Every structure is written in C-alpha cells, then in structure tokens.
Automatic annotation (TrEMBL):
The lineage of its organism: unclassified sequences, metagenomes, ecological metagenomes. This is GS catalytic domain-containing protein. Residues 2-53 form the GS catalytic domain. InterPro entries: Gln_synth/guanido_kin_cat_dom (IPR014746), Gln_synth_cat_dom (IPR008146). Pfam families: Gln-synt_C (PF00120). Transmembrane segments: none annotated. One of its GO terms (molecular function) is glutamine synthetase activity.
Length: 57
C-alpha cells in the first residue's frame, strides 16, 4: 500500500533498494534529505487553526 503521510513516504524512499538501484544512492539520499527538510519546515509551522483553537494567546 502507498503511504498516507509524507514522512512515511520519505522513510520508505530512503529504504528502497529499487530506487537506489534505479537512480543511485547519491540521488536518492539527496532527494530524501530535501524532502526531510521540507517535512521539518512543515512540522514547525503553526497553522491558523492551531493559533485560534490551541494556543492560549
């Protein structure tokens, strides 16, 4: 089954022997690093909903 979440997809991509054989370790590692940075940036972002409903401001 396909992963439902980006972080799960990143982890599967990193472990994929097929992708590493097809594209090479360097390409897959660079792609995974980029997507991990995107995920980290997203995870640090506070949404408007969180501001309105979860934070005591």
């Amino acid at each position: 089954p396909l992963p439902l979440y980006l972080l799960d997809a990143i982890r599967l991509t990193e472990k994929s022997k097929m992708l590493r054989q097809s594209f090479g370790d360097q390409v897959v590692s660079s792609y995974v690093k980029l997507k991990q940075q995107e995920w980290d940036s997203y995870a640090r972002h506070i949404t408007e909903w969180e501001r309105e409903n979860a934070l005591d401001v």
